[in-house]
Design a protein that fits this description.
52% of the residues lie in helices and 17% in strands.
C-alpha cells in the first residue's frame, strides 16, 4: 500500500488561496490600489494615459498628475463619472476622491 502524498490530498483554487493570503497579511487594500493604478490606461483609454505623468493613491485619494491643462480641467469636471467607472471595474470603492495635479 502506497502512502498518501500530502501535496495532493486536497485541491484548492489558486485565486482563493491568494485572496486568503492577502487577507491574512492585510494587503487587500494595497493590492486593489496597485491594480487600479495598473489598469488606468485600460479604464480611461490610451489618450488620457499618454498625458498622465504620475499616478498614486494616498489615504483613499487618487492623485493624477497630467501634462495637459485642458485635460485636467475636463477630467476635474468628470470626477464623479470616473469614480463610477472605477467602482464598476472593481466592484467596490477603492478610492473616495480624485485629485488632478
Amino acid at each position: 500500500m502506497k502512502p498518501k502524498d500530502p501535496r495532493k490530498s486536497e485541491t484548492l483554487k489558486i485565486d482563493s488561496q491568494i485572496k486568503d493570503m492577502l487577507k491574512t497579511f492585510r494587503l487587500e487594500d494595497k493590492f486593489k490600489e496597485t491594480e487600479l493604478i495598473a489598469s488606468w490606461e485600460k479604464i480611461l483609454g490610451h489618450t488620457i494615459a499618454k498625458r498622465t505623468q504620475k499616478i498614486f493613491i494616498r489615504d483613499r485619494k487618487l492623485f493624477v498628475k497630467l501634462s495637459s491643462a485642458p485635460l485636467k480641467n475636463e477630467l476635474s469636471m468628470s470626477k464623479s463619472k470616473i469614480i463610477a467607472l472605477l467602482f464598476h471595474e472593481f466592484g467596490e470603492a477603492v478610492i473616495d476622491d480624485i485629485v488632478f495635479l
